Amino acid sequence: MRGKILVCGATGFIGRNIAESFAERDGFEVYGTYLNAEPPDNPKIKMIRADLTNKDDVNRAIKGTDIIIQAAATTSGAKEIVTKPYYHVTDNAVMNSLIFRSAYDHKVSHVVFFSCSVMYQSGDVPVKETDFNANEEMHQNYFGVGWTKVYIEKMCEFYSRLGNTKYTAIRHSNIYGPYDKFDLERSHVFGATMTKVMTAENGGKIVVWGAGEEERDLLYVSDLVNFVELAIDKGESKFELYNVGYGSSVSVNDLVKKIIASSGKDLKIEYDLTKPNIKTKLCLDIAKA
């Protein structure tokens, strides 16, 4: 037995994919946390109901754990990032502070934390981990979430210097795949586009928010899961920060056209410039990973 893994946020998109993957591997006893969502019906995953912004719940969930995969977070699409920028700040800062402190107190061996890539500047060249410059202003829509993620990354490094717990922080690109959000209010560009295309009548139209010029680095969720498994199996450093993505970007226009082509439908594309969108271009340099 290699130990007990706790997947925080095991009912979420990334967390559920990770929990199910490790549940099929030999040598791991897999636990997962949930709060309001229905827990997965998987006998190989032991689910713990916990409010990760509550210190007592966090300590109860983490006690006896060897490895924590921290996939719990408040997440959303462009609409809430633009209209409710505080949505990603408070709860995420609180829950990670409590989780990392508990990991230190309970002598957890390894913590994997999912950051993001919104702190990087928009540009045409793939960005390395070292390209982030704290003196450059972040995109105004990403200011809150971006600096919150940077703070949590530094908290990983801080706790790695205090005890024996290893920390792996992952700046991943836009992830898509099974268990993603597909509702139009909270989904990211891939999930939202899939929903629009699959629910549109053949010969009809779909509406793209904005002009479709922004570009995103898209990675299938199983590739992210594979990296997490490698980090746990082979990671040796007390603290490491990695970019994890596809390594190139695709425009929303091209993405929409590809999904329409795959659907076999004849659909017209219209653009609503009044809807919230974040016009940036980003792809990750993944050489380190």
Could you please describe the fold and organization of this structure?
The chain starts with a strand and ends in a 17-residue tail after the last strand. The protein is of the alpha/beta class. The relative contact order is 0.15. Helix content is 34%, strand content 21%. The model has no long low-confidence stretch (mean pLDDT 92). It has a domain at 3-177 and 218-244: NAD(P)-binding Rossmann-like Domain (Rossmann fold). The strands form four sheets. A seven-stranded parallel β-sheet has the order 3-2-1-4-5-6-11, with helices on both faces. Strands 7-10 form a two-stranded parallel sheet. A two-stranded parallel ribbon has the order 8-13. α1 crosses α7 (221-234). α1 (13-23) links the parallel β1 and β2. It has helices spanning 13-23, 55-62, 78-83, 90-105, 143-162, 189-199, 221-234, 252-263, and strands spanning 3-8, 28-34, 45-49, 67-70, 110-114, 166-172, 174-176, 205-209, 215-216, 218-220, 239-244, 250-251, 268-272.
